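not sure who needs this but someone in the group chat was asking about GAF domain-containing protein from Micromonospora sediminicola so here u go. i didnt clean anything up, its just raw.
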Amino acid sequence: MRHAMTDNLGVLETAALLRELTAGLIAVADFDEALDRLVRIARDAVPGVDSCGFTALRAGEPAGVAASDPRRGELDDLRHGPDTPALTAVRRREMIIAAELTGEERWPAWCARADALGVHGVISAPVDVDEQVIGAINLYADSPGTLTPRHQLTAMLLAEHAGLLLAAVRDRERATARAGQLDGALLAEGVIGQAVGVIMTQRGCPAPEALDVLRSAASSLDIPLREVAERLVLTVSRPRDN
């Protein structure tokens, strides 16, 4: 009965973790910010895990790290050496666990750094983000033997869910970049740029806000953006009767 209650508790904890992760990343449009949130949420929500990190690779090359404990960031950073649990997980496309690092022979240099930082257990799970970015989420325990099969299941579900959420973040990041390029092109375009200048002068607001005002007017009137801009410019340039 006690085992059943423990298993149920683990299911509830994992469900809560995935809900919190979704809520934390659902509207984020910056990949680095998403990674920072991911590692903090995982650290706080997974019992027995004292810190969490993420190792990211872009086109097969190191592309940054995130760490819930900045002091331990080097454990996730491949620039300190390629032989790490994270890279092993990525290369083998499988979860890697070392519940006790003492005597671990797979990553001797990394284990020495981990020991110096008070880490005595690790789980690394590969995370597929998109065609360009892959990585691994790394769960660290300060005490040997703390990480159990239940932690492995949690890590697997966390990695799968995180991959989906991070892919969506990457899509939003790209969409934001495209929108920024489009805004730049619009602001450089004659009559629209003039209309934005008029709104900036009238409202004392920056160009992006002025462009949003122009877009809102076009949407409300259900007419093209250029036509709204032309009308505004024509209105302010029309001579006033004395």
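also Strands lie at 51-58, 61-67, 96-98, 121-128, 133-141. if thats useful
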